[in-house]
Amino acid sequence: MRPRVAVVIPARNEEENLRTTLDALNVQTLRPELVILVDDGSKDRTADVAMRYGVFVLRRPDRGYRATGSPVLAEVINYGLMEIRRRGPWNYVMVLGADHVLTENYINEVIRRMETDPKVVIASGVIAGEDRINRYPRGSGRLVKYGFWTGIGLRYPVYYGWEAYILYKALQKGYKLGVYEDLKTQIQRKTGKFTKYLEYGRGMRALGYDQLYAVGKAVLSSLERKDLSVFVKLMVGYLSSEVCHYDVAPFVRERQRRFITKRVLRVFGLNESSKLGYYNSIA
Prior knowledge:
By secondary structure, the protein is α/β, with parallel strands linked by helices. The chain has 2 domains: about 5-185, Spore Coat Polysaccharide Biosynthesis Protein SpsA, Chain A (Alpha-Beta Complex), CATH 3.90.550; about 195-280, no CATH class. The chain has helices spanning about 15-25, 45-50, 70-85, 105-115, 145-150, 160-170, 195-205, 210-225, 230-240, 250-265, 270-280, and strands spanning about 5-10, 35-40, 55-60, 90-95, 100, 120-125, 140-145, 175-185.
């Protein structure tokens, strides 16, 4: 039985890019049964293009700016997810950027690999040439098992760190994530270095990042980019953001403290059993 797949595309003024993205969706070896475009106040013909492709369009009023990089984008996507829930049930839900072009076997191949391990509930390929801070399933092109997502509400929290929240929630519940680096896709806008470090820092705070881990993350990111401002922006975001008590925060901190402990013990050449014994003694 073919999996039932629904797709939500947030879009604002994407008339020029949307055709190519939808062309790629139409030739998928496993085509989605439902594609919903959330027109986020476009002033061009984004909605008209989508409707010519048979896409179901939801319209939102123009707020005067793009939602990219802010929690507002979570609201936009959630608007589409509500319609997906209304028309469900499904097997998989995918969030896709309006300029994101998938290879024709992308959906089928990601799902095929996910189904070889029932524990994998969120997975994606990668974008060619993209500079990423973490090797987690990315936001656009991410396929999520419907049963898992409905179990935690089928929505993103509207706060910084919203995109990573469901990843940590999956891990907290004992599930796995998949990143298939041989499945390379393209975006139509010029890809480049990640730049939203202030927002990323706020997300770290919201998700409950351990302070030492956050500092280490900022240092390493700054060294990798050879740019001191990366460290400054990450830490300003982390320290200036109000604490958001996501329910995954204790899990995130504990996971990061285990990671730090193992790294420190590795420096001293201790074996795995020694690491575990030491960690349990200080937990």
